[in-house]
Design brief:
The protein has 137 residues and is mainly alpha-helical. Helix content is 65%, strand content 0%. It has one domain.
């Protein structure tokens, strides 16, 4: 069982490191620390469990209920540790995995590299000698 002191520490870790776009890697690292402390780290790495149909066994229903409860907690941690703007963008997503995939698409390492390469090319663009500036404005 986690003590109140641990909960306060985890809460402060997330609130001190809120996701504000540019700090995605740091935020994700801190989120994983909190989720692992809460024994929820597996949730972001496992596939979503679909709601069991009418012919499902009690084990399948129990597995879904456990996954769903864990996913709700993870979503709450994720949303609580984001800026208000990002919360609004992600609050209607149905799973923590969906939120994470969207954030990786928006702010992941690959996007950082792509932005760097584009910026590098833009900074190297120059007007050719003899060309008037007004043609480029």
């Amino acid at each position: 069982m986690i003590s109140m002191k641990s909960v306060n520490l985890l809460t402060s870790l997330l609130s001190d490191n809120r996701l504000i776009r540019a700090n995605f890697s740091d935020w994700l690292r801190n989120l994983n620390i909190v989720l692992n402390m809460e024994a929820l780290g597996y949730n972001l790495e496992t596939q979503e469990i679909e709601f069991p149909g009418g012919d499902a066994t009690s084990n399948q229903h129990n597995a879904y209920d456990m996954w769903s409860a864990a996913d709700t907690r993870v979503r709450c941690y994720m949303l609580a540790s984001m800026s208000n703007e990002l919360q609004k963008q992600h609050e209607n997503m149905k799973s923590s995995r969906e939120i994470l995939n969207n954030l990786r698409e928006l702010y992941g390492e690959n996007n950082r590299t792509a932005r760097y390469e584009i910026s590098k090319e833009l900074f190297r663009v120059r007007i050719q000698e003899g060309t008037e500036v007004t043609a480029h404005v």
